[in-house]
Structure formats: C-alpha cells, structure tokens
Amino acid sequence: MIPAEVAPDSLRVSRVLTATEAEGPGRRTAIWVQGCTIRCRGCFNPHMWAADGATVVPVREWTASLLDAARAARVEGITLLGGEPFEQAAPLAYVASAAREQGVSVMTFTGYEYRDLLAWSDTRADIRALLENTDLLADGPYEADNLDPTRPWIGSTNQQLRALTGRYRHLDFVTTPDRLEIRVDADGSVAVNGWQALDALDELLEGLGTRADRPRTR
Predict the structure, then answer these.
(1) Is 20 domain-assigned?
(2) How much is the pLDDT for 3?
(3) Is 2 part of a structural domain of the chain?
(4) Burial environment of residue 9 by CB neighbours within 10 A (0 to 12, 13 to 18, 19 or more)
(5) Would you say 184 and 172 are in contact if contact means Cβ atoms under 8 Å apart?
(6) What whole-number distance in Å separates Cα of residue 48 and Cα of residue 41?
(7) Which pLDDT belongs to residue 173?
(8) 208: which of 49, 65, 116, 185 lies 20 to 30 Å off by Cα?
(9) Measured in whole angstroms, how far is the alpha carbon of residue 166 from the centre of its chain?
(10) Is pLDDT of 165 > 70?
(11) What is the CATH number of the domain that holds 75?
C-alpha cells in the first residue's frame, strides 16, 4: 500500500500497449506517460517530452480497468516508461502498488539516476512509494554516444538494470535478447516499440511512411 500522504488524482498517459514482450521480462502491459523535462539527446520518444497532448485519466478507475485487461491478457507485469515516470511519481505509485497487490510485477524506466532518486525519497513520499513498488528499475539518462549493444531494454552503457526486489534477481541481463516489435493496424498505421537505434529504425521503416515526430522532407 502507498502512504496516505501520497494522494494520486490524475495521470497523463500517452500510450498503453497490452501483451508486449519488448518492454521488460516476459509478457507485459507497457504504459507510456506524457511529459519529461530531462529530454536526452537522441531520445526514442521526443513526442512525449511535452506535458501537452496527453490523455488525462482518473487514476483509480483507470488502474482498475488496466489491471482487468492485464489479467485477461495473462501478462506477468506492467512496465512504466515514457516520458518520465518519476515526474508523475504519485499516481504511478498507486498504479504500481495496485498491480503488485494482484501479483503483477512492476518495471520502471527513468532518466534519473538511482542514487538521486534515493536521496530525493528522504523528503518525497511519492518517489519513495514508487521505488518501493518497483521490482525492476532501469535508471540513468540515455547517452546517444554510448550505445549498449549487449543488454536488453536499455539504450546506453551508463544505464543500469537494478532488481529492487527478489522477483527478477535471477535474470541474466547480458544474454537476454533485445526485441523490437512492429504492429501494422488495419488502417495501415505502423506502431513501433522496444529498443533500436534511431538510424537503424529509420532504415528498417524506410518506405513505410514518415515518422510522426519528424517533418516530411522533399
């Protein structure tokens, strides 16, 4: 349970994807939140930097529906990413706590470093609650000049994968393969998730249309 002083109300959500196997261990529901002030150069999701453009949801009702769908899809966990989850730590602490109460694991991505989050958690109950309800943490800013070709889910060598509970301490974070998922909807729209360098992604998607976050060139 989260502490009483953490009182979530609404959450800015950019995207939800159920039954993905590219955003953490096993089959997961991935939740991309909207808004990030870190803004790493080469970020995979620059369209999620601004707070504007989100779907604003009531946390309690939305979380109940999310977990119902997760159970129906037989996922083992949820993954929080974005955007920057710790910039909406209070509502996401509620989401994470509710998930773990139902036996659903929680992975959280952050561009902040773990040591800073721990320091801030001394005076920020919301940050402390999200950390306490996270099983697997991927922390650190993305460094486009230091790509990591070996470990799954993260992009650069400075970033760390930390098992904060016993749930994923058995995992091998070196030989676990990385994945990229591409979905083509009936209307022809293409959605991508998982990890890949931007140049390689552009080459892969060449001829399928212009990425929504980049202007069309002539």
Answers:
(1) yes
(2) 65
(3) no
(4) exposed
(5) no
(6) 13
(7) 78
(8) 49
(9) 20
(10) yes
(11) 3.20.20.70
| 176 neighbors 168 (Cβ within 8 angstroms) | no
- Kindly state the average pLDDT of the residues 16-39: 95
Q: How many residues does the chain have?
A: 218
Run of H or E including 162: strand 160-163
Classify residue 217: in a domain, yes or no: no
Distance, in Å, from the CA atom of 78 to the CA atom of 99, rounded to the nearest integer, reads: 8
Round the CA-based radius of gyration of the chain to a whole number and report it. 17
pLDDT, tens digit, for every residue of 54-69? 999 999 999 999 999 9
How far is the first Cα of the chain from the last one, in angstroms, to the nearest whole number? 54
Contact between residue 177 and residue 22 where contact means Cβ atoms under 8 Å apart: no
Is the predicted pLDDT of residue 45 greater than 60, yes or no?
A: yes
187: exposed, middle or buried (Cβ count in 10 Å: 0-12, 13-18, 19+)? exposed
CA–CA separation, 149 and 197 (whole Å): 10
Q: How many domains does the chain have?
A: 1
Predicted local confidence at residue 218, as pLDDT? 38
Closest CA to 86 of 138, 28, 143, 150: 138
Q: How far is CA 149 from CA 18, 170, 182, 201, in A?
A: 26, 21, 20, 14
pLDDT grade for 216, boundaries at 50, 70 and 90: very low
The domain in which residue 66 lies consists of 10-176
φ/ψ of 179, rounded to 5, equals -140, 150
Predicted confidence (pLDDT) per residue in 121-145, tens digit: 999 999 999 999 999 999 999 999 9
In a domain, 104, yes or no: yes
Paired with 56 in beta bridges are 12
